[in-house]
């Protein structure tokens, strides 16, 4: 049997969401299938893909609403494809259980969806740095060589990932001692140089009576069985495998405990792959596989779409216990609505092509609108060979991907930021460095997501849903609400059109002011990318660092952008990798700017109990429409230099606890 719902659809109605679909941002005119699938080298419009997020938003006459169809069976959504005046959704079993979420704004809908399904936990700051990955870096000498190159070339990096070849015969929770004779020593050496080590773990457990993980799982009846009571078996990387039933709470607890040796060796994070679940030849499990489903037993038809989510849930909860007060970092390929409570995601095995760069930009916006903000693409494409220009343009986009990782297949040429010659290496160094300069802003946006339910990436339709022009714009987005990004997605392009939402915007590089509510033709040379900052923004910046462990400053820097309307900004700081923020050991600072033709006022309010090491601010005031003659900080006249620098900025030094700064003509 199946359950089915149909609703009326207006001629101008637009639809968004559904997770990682590789279609245009506006879903109208398409039909989609939700059935988690290993979609190697997927193409535009191909489906199904890796995740099932049965949540969409509609915009009707300028008002937004959401539908969350909470059904884990294979489901389908038809957005006015079969009949232009109807939308339908249905599933191959389960209940017709769905939530209607009213707006009126898309932001209201997404925030309320987050109250149902959760937000990402606040990640450790290092997880927001640059990650380098390949299938696979081995032996140990190769891993150390990669790390040495990053430091010698002064290209920032925080994490190196080890793919399946680090294991002994692809057996999970083991090390290949030929390639890695002393994992703990290698990981410590990397850690001493500022690198975290991430390892991959798949669900397939090799059938091998001499393998302790298999023996334990078999003895305790932890592996999935079929309806005839035989174990579910399939071939994956290790060969003949059985698979834990992650819908069983006992299995999740057991699985979480298996990470002890990896954690003891110093592994900092875990990447769960192949958990759709993927099986060679068959694609996935047969429908007759039985699952515990937290005691509400069901077949694989019901459990398939949550299998990967329950696997990474077990991983996250195990790491949280084992790493004591450290925040776990996990990645998953498969998931269901709510997976954001346990993991970051990436868009899977993409292709080194300009089309896939475009697809990735849409997928990341769609995932963020669908509750999964901590997302990224394989920079440069997983399969195929990018040239230097494509890789560099992808790095530029990757700076503003919440999860920034370069990754490539084993049958491709090596793909590090220096792999395409000195010209591209210099540009990649500049942009990865920009990621680290903006780290305080990026970290603060993650806090706004975790605490206040805001999505991290926001398509322009989320800023101006009442403006039909924005409904189809999918190659421009904002990171948070203050920085707007327009990636370059065509070979040889050195200019592009950018629509800016209403308000004042500043070119990040030149500080030129542009009026929003209009399209602008802007320069985009290969060593740059159009980036704009909203008027009224207060953007915290870091000195350039090679990894986030170097973030210890004597003075905090801010870029402060003038506006003639009132605007709010937030800055968040804490211990950056512990759970102390849950006991209010953090600082959340709110800034308010208001200006006119002859003055600008900046106020600061602070909550939380964290004590930073710095005492002063270096404030760079940008865009003043007047020449300042006097500045008052909390009523006292400032005696420093008030002249403009070469970028028309006025620099003011202040105490970190100021409450009000007045700048007067």
Mean pLDDT: 97
* Uncertain ranges: none
Which term fits the overall shape?
globular
Total number of strands: 42
Class from secondary-structure proportions: alpha+beta
Could you walk me through the main structural features you see in this protein, from its secondary elements to its overall organization?
The strands form 10 sheets. A 9-stranded parallel sheet has the order 22-21-19-16-12-11-10-24-23. The relative contact order is 0.10. Helix 5 (249-257) runs parallel beside helix 7 (300-322) and helix 9 runs parallel beside helix 10 (422-437). Helix content is 21%, strand content 28%. The chain is of the alpha+beta class. The mean pLDDT is 97. It is built from 12 helices and 42 strands. The longest helix is centred in the middle third of the chain and has 23 residues, at 300-322.
